[in-house]
Specification:
Layout (H helix, E strand, L loop, with lengths): L2 E5 L3 E2 L5 E8 L9 E7 L6 E7 L4 E3 L7 E6 L4 E6 L8 E7 L5 E2 L3 E5 L2
Parallel strand pairs: 2-11
Antiparallel strand pairs: 1-3, 3-8, 4-5, 4-9, 5-6, 7-8, 9-10, 9-11
């Protein structure tokens, strides 16, 4: 059974770059036809999909976040990473990594607060 675990700083200053890592166990991120996503949920709001990196290594982003978002991977560690630049308080949210849509699986989430 695949498990996902997010890690990264819980507090980021405005204008800095947010960096989160998802460590996957119980399955390889290079297995065909699986897509590995980042999703966030701001306080009091719904889920927002940020982007994914595919089994092939190609990445695709939400158009609204594309200009300041990058998702990469380290296959030797079975990890994928989210970087979001120029963060603002509106980026405060619970951030989740997930395998979607095939055989959905979610990490427990990590809270990121953007504040001075």
């Amino acid at each position: 059974q695949v498990q996902l675990q997010e890690s990264g700083p819980g507090l980021v200053k405005p204008s800095q770059t947010l960096s989160l890592t998802c460590t996957v166990s119980g399955g390889s991120i290079t297995t065909n036809y699986y897509y590995w996503s980042w999703v966030r949920q701001p306080p009091g709001k719904g889920l927002e999909w940020i982007g994914y990196i595919a089994y092939s290594g190609s990445a695709y982003y939400s158009p609204s976040l594309k200009s300041r978002t990058s998702i990469s991977r380290d296959t030797s560690k079975n990890q994928f990473t989210l970087q979001m630049s120029s963060v603002a308080p509106e980026d405060t949210a619970m951030y989740y990594c997930a395998r979607l849509p095939r055989a959905p699986a979610w990490g427990q989430g990590t809270q990121v607060t953007v504040s001075r």
